[in-house]
Amino acid sequence: MEHEIALLRETELFSELTAEQIAKILSIARKVNFSEGQIIMREAEDGDTMYIILEGTVEVVKSLVMGDPDEEADEKSKVFTRLDASDHAVFGEVGLFEAMKRTATIKTVTQARFLEIKRSSFLRLTDADHELGYRVFFNLAKIVSGRLRKADEDTIKLTTALSIILRES
Amino acid sequence: MEHEIALLRETELFSELTAEQIAKILSIARKVNFSEGQIIMREAEDGDTMYIILEGTVEVVKSLVMGDPDEEADEKSKVFTRLDASDHAVFGEVGLFEAMKRTATIKTVTQARFLEIKRSSFLRLTDADHELGYRVFFNLAKIVSGRLRKADEDTIKLTTALSIILRES
User: Fold this and answer.
1) Taking the CB of residue A109, how many other CB atoms lie within 10 A of it?
2) What is the pLDDT of residues B58-93, one digit of tens each?
3) Could you tell me the domains of chain B?
4) Using CB atoms and an 8 Å cut-off, which of residues 115-144 of chain B contact chain A?
5) Contact yes or no for B16/B74 (Cβ under 8 A)
6) Distance CA A53, CA A83 (A)
7) Residues of chain B contacting A163 with CB distance shorter than 8 Å
8) What's the pTM?
């Protein structure tokens, strides 16, 4: 419990929460175990759960070009990165507050253990405790806006590359 | 006042707020007037204010390729769209909670009147009223994640276009 409280407070999502608020989050989380090579979430599928790694390593895979997201391990997919508990990694947090397709596939590369939180329990908690809800949604807005900035930069780089290639061809 | 309450409730940012909560938002907003052709915010500059159009029309301009954002009206910039009060448009809302560069230039194309909200007043209000803070940051997280989804789709389209061109050349 102490270990999990410490771990949750290290995540960006739950940063600046009090120990009591973290305990409330833990009370709606359940521990789930996955064996090696299991898919935790699949790109383009619906999802209403979020995961935090407690033990083990996962691989985050994201399609870079259009195509069937189920086609595995071809040039259309690219392994982005491997993450373990020391990265304080959280997956699927957007699923906590709205029905959105998963933007990446998460697969275990070792046996792994996660905390799983469901949207319905999470929203029940934040609706009942506005101070907690305010803090977590403040963090969520920051996390998502950081990703948006990164995505905007990528778009500009890609458009620039395209315009250079088209000019030269 | 009644008109402004109605208008604010039509925005995605302040949707589902009570009339009392909207009145609190209005109490920290000030009305500002701009003449035709004025720049409200400039891409790539810092900003800690948000604007809601009350009257008039603006143009939203965003660079599509890398380059000097100050170079105006060349092929590097593209007019995205014109917006007026009937669009319930809000600009710069990310500036309400963190120090981020503006992602577009907003320019008036008529005389225009806005509500302006500053980050410091906004955060003072949400820190004092967690229920209000929870609701607004919930909306903010949704707004930003909608934009992120759109940006991710753009990235995949651009990468696909690039890969097709590179394969054929």
Assistant:
1) 16
2) 999 887 777 655 555 455 556 678 999 888 888 998
3) 2-168 (2.60.120.10)
4) 126, 130-131, 133-134, 137-138, 140-142, 144
5) no
6) 9
7) 65
8) 0.88
